[in-house]
Design a protein that fits this description.
Length: 554
């Protein structure tokens, strides 16, 4: 890859918040938030109040995004006191938010939920990362040097920084984006609690605290970019690289979704070793899977190894959350591909279906029905398969409708958009991706080595309102370029699609995509034939970002 070094200014501080804590409440946290001469109060908001319900809504969203139910979920309390802003009370297994901190977050208007999420995610991270054990150890060994060192300001500050960093990723994965008002929230909290801004023997200064948050923000931005690249690589079918990108995230942050995504990429990678005849039907491991084999189909041992590797990842996701229905369905798909139809039926028809109905995963419940229809067809029960597909299609499953057409021998057309004048080349910031790839300009300071032969390059300022992501794999001799619009991009595609347009508008001019995939932030629509494009939709089905991609092989 031809690369020219470009020096860019540091990224804007996308995230930097440090919720602060009192020593009598939290075993693990730095006592930075203790308002001088504060008086304890046990008065709290009732669970029926609008204030509590708002905080609870944000809290539950974070808990679900973390997806780790191996341990009890802490209770939530909203207290009418002005003492410590927020805290994790290990003795009561309770996360506390105070009224005044709630009011500070509310002052951020339409970003108030994100501000609340920052405070609550910070506390949840202390809990999930087991920061509480050290306080008990310190109290038992305070006379020893190790106890004194673990009780130091430096050690506590390290835990706060980790909670900023991993808490920020939790906020992002819950769908709140990268909140860029962290330093402002912190300044307002200090002011509201009349906290000293200068450094003392016990407290760092406000400016130091903000700097800690900003440095965490820079690391967080890198982690988010690796995670986003993993999603994009999965969407366009580069499963080998996507697996390595997800694994990089897993080394820092563990969640059921990360384990599940690792398993999905392994299954999709294995599916490339099947012949088209073996993959006649479209499995519900994703909404719409193309089934063109691209590798030597004789390598069955390798594909089986990948599928069994995927099963281990799905089991890890289930161990974190035994009610996580998607992992059961994906596990069933893996068993079906291994031709272990009995286990596939059990995990689809029993485990996945029950967990989906119990925990509000309607799409997964339909997916389980679709897989049962596929299993019927594979075992020669075509009449029963047809009934199953019809029922699931009537319930709203496009995948069931597609499989019904396949069963009936009908041809499925994708990526056939509006006909008209000759197409113009797709451009972002007036640049065609082929030219961008030829220039090969990246910011060397942002290069990440994910494995011995895999590198992640970036150009954060490819144009005024876009950025370039590059995955270079010297083993597969494949380089993938993704040129993406930034938030708020005002330009339009060659067929006049712009940010804010809905899915229907995209399909009207580009046709139904040949490939789609769900993400924590919505849906990715992928076009692979006439156009090589990605449309990223938000949870409301509106276009949030779009991009062009290019894969070069040496």
């Amino acid at each position: 890859m031809k690369r020219k070094k470009i020096c860019f200014p540091a990224l804007l501080f996308l995230f930097g918040i440090t919720s602060l804590f009192a020593q009598d409440r939290s075993f693990a946290t730095l006592p930075l938030a203790q308002k001088p001469n504060a008086i304890r109060s046990a008065e709290m908001y009732g669970k029926e109040t609008p204030q509590y319900q708002k905080v609870l809504s944000v809290y539950n969203r974070l808990v679900q995004a973390r997806g780790d139910f191996r341990y009890p979920v802490p209770a939530l309390a909203l207290l009418k006191e002005v003492k410590q802003m927020a805290a994790m009370d290990y003795s009561k297994l309770e996360i506390i938010l105070e009224e005044r901190a709630y009011q500070v977050c509310s002052s951020f208007g339409n970003q108030s939920d994100a501000a609340l999420a920052l405070l609550l995610a910070h506390e949840l991270t202390h809990y999930y990362e087991k920061h509480g054990w050290r306080k008990g150890f310190v109290e038992d060994n305070i006379d020893l040097d190790i106890g004194l060192r673990l009780d130091s300001l430096t050690d506590n500050a390290a835990k706060e920084t980790e909670a900023d960093y991993l808490g920020g990723f939790l906020v992002y994965s819950a769908g709140y984006g990268l909140f860029d008002k962290g330093p402002e929230v912190l300044a307002k909290l200090y002011q509201a609690y009349e906290m000293p801004v200068e450094k003392s023997d016990k407290y760092p200064s406000l400016s130091d605290r903000q700097s800690m948050g900003r440095r965490s923000a820079e690391k967080l931005a890198q982690l988010v970019e690796v995670f986003d690249m993993a999603n994009l690589l999965t969407a366009i079918g580069n499963y080998t690289d996507a697996y390595a990108f997800y694994y990089q995230v897993l080394m820092v942050y563990q969640s059921r979704e990360i384990y599940n995504n690792l398993g999905v990429t392994a299954v999709l990678d294995a599916m490339q070793y099947f012949s088209p005849a073996d993959l006649k039907y479209r499995f519900p491991i994703e909404l719409d899977l193309t089934s063109t084999a691209t590798r030597d189909v004789s390598l069955a041992p390798n594909r089986d190894s990948l599928l069994r590797q995927a099963l281990l990842h799905f089991d890890a996701a289930i161990s974190m959350d035994p009610q996580y229905a998607p992992a059961y369905l994906n596990k069933a798909c893996a068993y079906a591909l291994l031709k272990d139809y009995n286990r596939a039926r059990f995990y689809a028809g029993v485990e996945a279906h029950q967990a989906a109905l119990k925990n509000n995963y309607p799409k997964t419940a339909l997916g389980a029905d679709v897989l049962n229809g596929i299993l019927d067809a594979l075992e020669g029960e075509e009449g029963r398969a047809q009934t199953t597909f019809k029922a699931a299609a009537s319930a709203g499953s496009p995948l069931a409708a597609q499989n019904l057409r396949i069963l009936l021998g009908e041809r499925i057309e994708t990526e056939i958009g509006a006909q008209g004048a000759p197409d113009k080349p797709e451009r972002i910031d007036e640049k065609v991706l082929a030219r961008v790839a030829e220039e090969g300009k990246v910011d060397d300071s942002k290069t990440i080595a994910l494995a011995k032969q895999l590198y992640f390059y970036q150009n954060p300022l490819q144009g005024p309102h876009s950025r370039l992501f590059v995955s270079e794999n010297s083993y597969t001799k494949k380089t993938t370029y993704l040129h993406l619009t930034s938030a708020g991009y005002a330009g339009k595609t060659a067929r006049q699609i712009g940010l804010g347009d809905d899915r229907t508008a995209i399909v009207a001019v580009y046709g139904e995509p040949g490939h789609t995939i769900e993400t924590p932030r919505g849906e990715i629509m992928v076009y692979k034939k006439n156009k090589k494009m990605i449309f990223l939709l938000n949870p409301s089905g509106k276009l949030e970002r779009w991009g062009n991609y290019l894969v070069q092989e040496q």
